[in-house]
Amino acid sequence: MTLSAFNARSAWLLLFAGLAVGPAATPLTAQHANAGHGAHQQNGTSEASWRMPPQPRPMPMMLPGLMGAVPVLTPFLPGAGLDPAALPEAVLREIVHLADGDTLRLEAGFVRRRVGTREFTMYGFNGQYPGPLVRVPQQAKIIVIFTNNIDLPTAVHWHGLRLENQFDGVPGLTQDPVEPGESFLYRVYFPDAGLYWYHPHHREDIQQELGLYGNMMVDSPEPDYLAPVNGEDFLMLDDILIDEAGIFPFGREGAAQTLMGRFGNHMLVNGEPRWETTVRRGEVRRLFLTNVANTRTFNLVAKGAGLKLVGADASKFERETMVQNVVIAPAQRYIVDARFGQPGTVALVNSIQAVDHFNGVFYPQVDTLGLVTVLEERVPRGEDHAESFDSLRANADVTEDIDRYRAEFAGPPDHELELTVRPGDLPSDMVAVMALDTAYFPPVEWNDAMPMMNYLATSDNLTWVLRDPATGRENREIEWTFRQGDVRKIRIRNLRRSFHPMQHPIHIHGQRFLVIERDGVPAANLAWKDTVVVPVGSTFDLLLEASNPGVWMAHCHIAEHLEAGMAMVFTVEER
Questions:
Q1: 365-376: per-residue pLDDT in tens?
Q2: Among 112, 298, 323, 482, which is most exposed with the fewest C-beta within 10 angstroms?
Q3: Is the pLDDT of residue 286 over 80?
Q4: Are residues 55 and 98 in the same domain?
Q5: Buried b (16+ CB within 10 A) or exposed e, 278-308
């Protein structure tokens, strides 16, 4: 990619904006504007209505064929007929410590949530944001009695856990949707230490965006499983899309914004616009990071603090490493130790190089997610973990576990997947502009550089594709079968040339895998994973351990891409 190619593309966009003619998208009509079935008053808006999505930067002009266009979907907001003032005000999550055999009652319900200075009707687990942090010992089994008291069918997926297949929480595959007013009993098993999370697996583009998510921490019985620290912080990273009228609507019949996913314009940490804490000078804090955003990949930087990468989705790394930043895609988790050695204020920021396609520029964008106040008071000598922090531990237990599989690294792939997209009946002006997009494909879409075009793409007129090149089958047509105990190498290629290539966080249910090679370069420091982000144009090799029998899903964890078809099913047969 060259800057001249990028600018040439932008020039074409501007020219097309001035010259484009002909039929395009559905115009904004009274029927669409007021088709707010299931909507209610939010900050003066009596019903959900389509409107122009918020623009991060001024656009010079709009394509004539797209002016006034809206998605061909009914706009939806939660809580039809409810008085927001009568709803319980959501409270910050609690930590629930459970032992083997305990029972948790979990309810999805309506809450009144404050974001900044404004209040909205949203969803919450047990009236909390995020949902309760469930903390259990490794190998525990618990019962979860889940009740659905929202206005959509739903289910709970226990992300990353190798639990019984029938309790994986995927409607249409492992269970029927839990209808409003109904309940479902889950048996949840925690075989692996680490950080996990739970969320809906039915219209998660709506339900997850509106607050239905929570963490699970599985503690190892080994007292020195992780190095000593002065404290722990669980940070769920999110964003939400809000304009002057309130929360931006969703599509009732299907997802909107399926081209790039629903980027929010307000950052959230644990449901709040900013996370703040105070530490003593010299403290080491353990940050448990989970990305619960619909589509945004974060690049976390904490200037003024030392950062050490400790663990990933489902295990520690073989070796701890010092890092300057942490890139975390939707559904991924990382465990990071941070040492605050100097007094003052340390900002935890999302620092990216954003793209503005219409104006043809790159620009730095830095959003403050949290502030850590470091006091002059030093941590007492007996609590000073500086030596431990500076020592990069080698985790022999992880290496020994992985050693059993290293002989499989060098072989050819057993299966392959290609990641691409297929446009359908999109507005003609949008298709014409996207056809110009032949020069510049960012490896990662850090921001929504085309809000209007993204907004008009829906799960009806755009299909995101997982393709098996050996058979030509796509998405749910793919049929992979493993035997319990199989170890299989899977090669994933994210095709550079397509209607609009984009990175994809690929999540595999019920199993664990290793990322053994990236673009031909063997990985030097491994950890067990359940989600991997594959940038545009990249090829990743995974080694899948098929340990858990059942019928499972693999899919892109950008919520709108999942709704637009990017999912497959595979079977692990009992041996």
A1: 999 999 999 999
A2: 323
A3: yes
A4: no
A5: ebbbbbbbbbbbbbbbbbbbbbbbbeebbbb
Give the model's pLDDT for residue 57.
Answer: 78
Taking each continuous run of H as one helix and of E as one strand, the counts in the chain are: 8, 37
Cα angle, residue 237 at apex, residues 558 and 114 outer, rounded to 5°: 110
- For 80-101, what is the mean pLDDT? 94
Q: In the chain, what percentage of residues exceed pLDDT 90?
A: 81
- Residues 288, 316: one domain? yes
Domain boundary among 20, 48, 71: 71
Considering the domain architecture, whether residues 14 and 91 belong to the same structural domain is answered as no
Q: Tell me the CA distances in angstroms from 440 to 20, 427, 463, 501, 502, one per residue in order.
A: 22, 22, 21, 10, 11
pTM reported for the whole predicted model: 0.92
Parent domain of 235 = 231-393
To which H or E segment does residue 420 belong? strand 415-423
Which CATH number fits the domain that encloses residue 172?
2.60.40.420
- Give the three-class secondary structure for 114: strand
Radius of gyration of the chain from its Cα atoms, rounded to whole angstroms: 23
**Domain boundary residue, one of 393, 423, 447:** 393
Give tens-digit pLDDT for 460-512: 999 999 999 999 999 999 999 999 999 999 999 999 988 999 999 999 999 99
Burial class (CB in 10 A: 0-12, 13-18, 19+), 264: buried
Q: Which two tokens mark 217? A: 């921490």
Please give the DSSP secondary-structure letter assigned to residue 167: G
Number of domains in the chain: 4
Q: What is the pLDDT of residues 59-76, one digit of tens each?
A: 666 666 677 789 999 999
Q: What H or E segment, with its residue span, contains residue 3?
A: helix 3-19
Tokens of 219: 């503690």
Q: What angle do CA 558, 564, 566 make, to 5 degrees?
A: 65
Which single residue is written with the structure tokens 């269970």? 175
- For residues 13 and 61, the answer to whether their CB atoms sit within 8 Å is no
Judgement on whether residues 41 and 147 belong to the same structural domain of the protein: no
